[in-house]
Write the structure tokens for this entry.
Amino acid sequence: MNIIRKTSVTIFTTILLFTTSCGSKNVLGVGELKSNLSAKNIIGNHYKNELDFETLTGRIKIDYSDGENSQGTTVSIRMKKDEAIWMSATLSVVKVLITPTRVSFYNKLDNTYFDGDFSYLNKLLGTELNFEMVQNLLLGQAVFDLNKEPYYASSVANKYQLKPEKQSELFKTLFLLEPTYFKMSLQQISQPSKNRLLSIDYKNYQTVDGKILPNEIEINAVDKEHKNRIEIEYNSVEFNRDVSFPYSIPSGFKQVEIK
């Protein structure tokens, strides 16, 4: 049941490694075709089809692998848009609570916990993270704000591809969007000089109450010789039910140090 803690740390740590905007020259590469839509239109459609809801409840199956060990579990998930993400394993053995100002989880199997705000994580890991990025990753939205810099559009394998017009020497980003709902198909952020790669692959989408959300997500995080894979599958999703977020760190637990 350590998977929730490992998954939380992995997602937070790997995203923090890549939170610098980046770009690419406006040149078609191998396999790229000229897009029939402009980058502005693609981005506009992406945000036009953003999930509109107040709350989300359901269950998610999580499979985690670090190349040596693999674990899998199913947890309950509750979300209040822009306010909280809550996860709980069976009998509340492991719980996670994320808010715009707080990242917290505990594990009753080894009596450990982490509880801190984003400024603590930013200082610890040397870069920037916010609640919106985690929420967007889980909902099939762009991790970065696509309206903050100019992109150029192309077509690759029947999907729309976006790359920033201005290339960064340190970071590279790539976004693929499926053409039906303009939801994310792939988000990829790399730092070649340090052999770092974060790849978020949305295998497919599902329709629930007329709303489009991911069905299966695969996250691959590579840092030098380390590789972590997290697979997420949504089940039994419902929208706009009354939700609560019961959460209290048991006494006597030892704080986890994130390295």
About this structure: The radius of gyration is 18 Å. The longest strand covers residues 226-239.
